[in-house]
Amino acid sequence: MMKQYAVNKLAKLAGVSVRTLHYYDQIGLLTPSVRTSAGYRVYGEAELLRLQQILFYRELDVELKDIASILDDPGFDLIHALEGHRQMLLSKKDRIETLVATVEKTISHLKNNVNMNVEDLYAGLPKEQAAAWRREAQEKWPGQVAHAEKQLLEMDKDSYQQLQEGFKANWEKLASLSHLDPASQQVQQEIDLHYRYILQFWGKTGNQAEAYNGLGDLLATDERYMQVNGLANPAFGSFMQQAIRVYVAQQLK
């Protein structure tokens, strides 16, 4: 026996209002299979399937008049239409999942108060010293400093801390290897890691070979940058300068 649905039941089943079904009937988009003598609308399986198609097309923002033309076309193929709906809905699902992930990331960012500020980048240094170093760096390397601060300020505090800890461990490892030949494989492997850490601060801008060589010279000549365990170590600074020059000559030229 063919199933039949009163207008209230169909509205509940489809998740639309009774008023919507009345309107669809009024414009000839979805007419009931039976209209009783008392004026009640009754719908069958065919109307149920047609309503499904209407709702699919509405989900895709197709206008009602265009939906009527599509469904009333003699060449309309229900299975082909359903396959098309499935593909479009899957594509829409992918876009929505991407948006949801973005929103969740933003919510987490705001809830956890993970915004960095410039002071966070120089934590651990006396305020006046940090300000002086920043001014000096901006004068010497304006492009790299601007890029580095932009990159780092976009990090959450946990990621920034991990970067700091990794860079510190790499520096300590290089200090422990400073008795070796700067050109040795072991040293050069660690220098490669050092260079990749530096790129996270600088970004891939400008002449990297010249800039990295310049950093090596700075490590050998400025006591503030050659420190190991808080103390200036000229021998280590010279070792880093030589190791960086080898790396640049072999990898960046």
Structure description:
The chain is mostly helical and 253 residues long. The chain folds into 3 domains: 1-76, Multidrug-efflux Transporter Regulator, Chain: A, Domain 2; 78-111; 118-252, no CATH class. The protein contains 12 helices and 5 strands. It has helices at residues 7-14, 18-26, 45-59, 64-72, 78-111, 118-121, 127-140, 142-153, 157-176, 185-202, 208-221, 234-252, and strands spanning 5-6, 34-35, 41-43, 227-228, 231-232. The strands form 2 sheets. Strands 1-3-2 form a 3-stranded antiparallel beta sheet. A two-stranded antiparallel sheet has the order 4-5. It is rod-shaped, with a radius of gyration of 34 Å. The N and C termini lie far apart (82 Å).
Short descriptors:
253 residues; 3-stranded antiparallel sheet; Multidrug-efflux Transporter Regulator, Chain: A, Domain 2
Strand and helix layout:
Layout: E1 5-6, H1 7-14, H2 18-26, E2 34-35, E3 41-43, H3 45-59, H4 64-72, H5 78-111, H6 118-121, H7 127-140, H8 142-153, H9 157-176, H10 185-202, H11 208-221, E4 227-228, E5 231-232, H12 234-252
Antiparallel strand pairs: 1-3, 2-3, 4-5
